[in-house]
Amino acid sequence: MFTNMLTYLFGLVMVAFRTQHVVPDLIDTVPPNLLQVKYPNGTVMLGNELTPTQVQNQPTVHWPTEVGALYTLAMLDIDVPNHTDRSDGNFKHWLSVNVPHSNVQFGYTLANYMSIHPPKGVGLKRYVFLAYK
């Protein structure tokens, strides 16, 4: 049962990352695990829309970890300046390194969480959370 659930979740991640073109626009392969990202006023759900008000404060983020391993957590805007013109590349909204057990508060923050304030008229943008061992 547990293995079936993991296979199902990986399938959801794969479809979402490919449908939204995160693969190949940002990364070459689909991550093996789904991150749980929760804001006080909304939860990230593989491509759902959240308002700037909902994402104003730093979210909690959890992912599967290994004992003794350290992780890097990044939040990126991959549509700079907008979804159809990505000529400016990516923008780093948050970066923490040496994070143990998905406990971001115990990692080393290289870039504090920066809330999202897209300029008027740019349309929807893709914001991606990634965790790497």
From TrEMBL:
Organism: Oppiella nova
Superkingdom to which the source organism belongs: Eukaryota
Cross-referenced Pfam families: PBP (PF01161)
Protein name: Phosphatidylethanolamine-binding protein
Keyword terms, alphabetized: Signal
InterPro entries: PEBP, PEBP-like_sf, PEBP_euk
Signal peptide limits: 1-24
